[in-house]
Amino acid sequence: MSYRRERCGNCGVELQFPLDAKSVRCAACHAITTVRTRDPVKQAANWIKGFVNHVAYNAINSLSSSSSSPLWASEPYTYQSLRPPTYPQVHGKKRALLCGVSYRQRWNELKGTINDVNCMKYLLCDRFGFSPNSILMLTEDERDPYRIPTKQNMRTAMRWLVQDCQPGDSLVFHYSGHGSQQRDSSGDEIDGYDETLCPLDYETVGMIVDDEINETIVRPLPEGVKLHAIVDACHSGTVLDLPFLCRVNRYGYYQWENHNPPSGAYKGTSGGEAVSFSGCDDHQKSSDTSALSEGTNTGTMTYCFIQALLTGSGTTYGSLLNAMRSAIRGAHSGLIGGNGPLTCLLKRVLWEGMKQEPQLTSSKQFDIYRTPFCL
């Protein structure tokens, strides 16, 4: 009898089962894993939806068995009362920081950010060989006060990400949450605005500005270390303040724009390499939706990033960027069916109003269609 191999959707153990099996129970953790479909697009959607449902099920059980409330719902606490954080001890050459900010019970609450970071963690472990012990997650679901995505905790976590990194290390920074802009006061922005990330407490202590992000996780990178940032937020095109922005036209031709600051400030690394995929251009907004994954809320950019990798569309940086953009355009135009003149006009108006084009920036220029993508 012929067999197939599949990884357990819960613990990641490799399973073996007959070709005609539709599901298999893991002998290690007893979770049931559904066999992936042959349609790569459906495979990606089912992968994300199934994993999100699994995380939600575990979270509900965890909350129901505990008498305490999540930290985000408790009384405010002061930083002075906290002891130094105990973050994961890094194993191997790979580490990742995943931040998902939901802003619960506020007017600007987001529904898909925690789903985003949970799926990103599983992707890193399942497809790119990251150890769960080398991944630090900051979300409002965490009970450890040092893992709530406040401004201070995000600053500390970013320093953890790059601390003591060595040649050959692969670092990942993923953020899903709100992003914004503010007037540039240092003269190093071409458009006159700094891009920002909005931590959980940004309304009281302020946002994290791109200058600080660059200084914290870009500048310290030594020779032989590579950082990938995946930032799913509004106004995030140049949120790492990297020197080069890749412009790609509708036909796939690209050109690197020099975004070195007019002030002459150095925004590169200390010999390493930094590459960032962002949800949209600096003047655009990113969306949080349930339209892509059949009712499961996700960030549009994060979903399309994962989908492109699962379907094999993201083998190079260029193919990954184009696959993400095509998926987002298709999703937006698919909100209105039909091909009549009025429908086409509505689609065009809708696209212009919701336009979201993922961007690629880098600390150095390279051939985006010949350079393989790997974390």
From TrEMBL:
Any one cellular-component term (Gene Ontology): cytoplasm
Any one biological process term the GO annotation gives: proteolysis
Residues forming coiled coils: none
Peptidase C14 caspase domain mapped to chain residues: 93-364
Taxonomy, superkingdom: Eukaryota
GO MF term (any one): cysteine-type endopeptidase activity
Signal peptide residue numbers: none
Cited InterPro entries: Caspase-like_dom_sf, Metacaspase, Pept_C14_caspase, Znf_LSD1
Alphabetical list of Pfam families matching this protein: Peptidase_C14 (PF00656), zf-LSD1 (PF06943)
Residues in Zinc finger LSD1-type domain copies: 8-32
Family: Belongs to the peptidase C14B family.
Protein name in the entry: Uncharacterized protein
Organism (species): Amborella trichopoda
Lineage: Eukaryota, Viridiplantae, Streptophyta, Embryophyta, Tracheophyta
